[in-house]
Design a protein that fits this description.
38% helix; elongated; 3 strands; alpha+beta
Length: 71
């Protein structure tokens, strides 16, 4: 079962067998490890950078104003 901290993170496996933990809110890779305990610890300690969240918010607002991309 996933820990509460891991619900805000996506895990992706790398070719070398390590796993990246990526924050779903700010998109930062918070940890790369072969050990689940390392990922959980980094996820628990992670705090999103407010400036980065603001940047993502502005980009999302700009995209919603311009409408969906055309193929």
């Amino acid at each position: 079962m996933a820990s509460p901290a891991s619900l805000g993170f996506t895990h992706r496996e790398n070719r070398d067998g390590t796993i990246d933990s990526v924050c779903r809110r700010c998109y930062v890779t918070v940890c790369t490890s072969s050990w689940e305990a390392d990922l959980e610890s980094a996820e628990k300690d992670h705090a999103c950078d407010p400036a980065l969240l603001e940047r993502w918010s502005r980009l999302a607002d700009r995209k919603s104003i311009s409408g969906p991309e055309q193929p």
